[in-house]
Structures are given as C-alpha cells and as structure tokens.
Write a structure and sequence with these properties.
The protein has 58 residues and is an all-alpha fold. The protein has one helix and no strands. The protein has a domain of 39 residues: Erythroid Transcription Factor GATA-1, Chain A (2-Layer Sandwich).
C-alpha cells in the first residue's frame, strides 16, 4: 500500500506529527471548516432548549 495523502490538501504525504494531515496549516484549515459549519455529521435534527423552558417530556 502506498503512502497516505493529507486529508485536507490531498497533495502532500501525511506527516506523522500532524496525522492525518501533512502540516499544521492543513490541520488548522480543517478545524476552521468545522467551526464555520462546512462539515456536518449525518443524523437526526436536534433542538437546543433553554434551561428555563419547561420539559416537554415531563
């Protein structure tokens, strides 16, 4: 099996220090995508309730 490529840029080989990325730059770009909401995890939608709201299941 060949050398793995960075999951962010897909051009450079993975650096063990930044695995699965090739550099700190790619690691931070990936983190920025998560923070900006560009990545999503599939699943059921949820509602965030305020702690002052009555519990609908009670």
């Amino acid at each position: 099996m060949g050398q793995s490529l960075c999951v962010q840029c897909r051009t450079q080989p993975v650096d063990p220090a930044w695995r699965p990325f090739c550099s700190e730059r790619c690691k931070l770009l990936d983190l920025g995508n998560w923070v900006a909401g560009r990545y999503r995890v599939e699943g059921d939608a949820t509602t965030i309730r305020n702690s002052d709201d009555p519990d609908p299941d009670a």
